[in-house]
Amino acid sequence: MFGRVVAPKHTDSLKYFQDNKPAVDWEVMLVVGAVFGAFLAAWQGNELTGEWVPAMWAARFGEGSLTLRLGAALVGGIFMAFGARLAGGCTSGHGISGTMQLSVGSWIAVLCFFAGGIPAAMLMFRL
Questions:
Q1: 58-75 tens-digit pLDDT
Q2: What is the DSSP-derived secondary structure letter of residue 93?
Q3: How far apart are the two ends of the chain, measured CA to CA in Å?
Q4: Does residue 41 carry a pLDDT above 90?
Q5: How far is CA 47 from CA 1, 61, 86, in A?
């Protein structure tokens, strides 16, 4: 739907959108509800801080480290996407669904997630 607003000719030329018309269905409303629900829970719990740099990050890297934080998030997201593609699924899919189905590949992937995540956290926060 956003594509039709930004680039209607290109969006209409895509085969996927010729066969599947975008609609506001339960999946879209689930995302909207999750975002709204998270906002409402933070607001009601007095945890709505509106801060870009959390206190723990600022203590470690300084107050003016918004660029570093955004850069770290971008690089981390790229690594996660690459790893998900390489592992044949995302961390949630392997960790929740795959391991419960006793998939050997999922167990290996989850072990690798932890084997990489723990040293990365220790390096980042120097525990």
A1: 888 887 778 888 888 899
A2: I
A3: 46
A4: yes
A5: 33, 22, 37
pTM: 0.46
| Distances in whole angstroms, Cα of residue 117 to Cα of each of 13, 106, 124 | 42, 16, 10
Q: What six digits make up the tokens of 120? A: 């990365």
Q: Which of 121, 86, 126, 122 is nearest to 105 (CA)?
A: 86
User: Which stretches of 1-127 are DSSP H helices?
Assistant: 2-6, 8-13, 15-19, 26-44, 55-61, 66-87, 91-92, 99-100, 104-125
Residue 99: count of CB within 10 angstroms of its CB: 16
For the chain, which residues make up each domain, given as ranges? 2-44, 55-125
Task: Report the half-sphere exposure of 27 (CA within 13 A, side-chain side).
Answer: 2
**Cα–Cα distance, 20 to 13 (Å, whole number):** 12
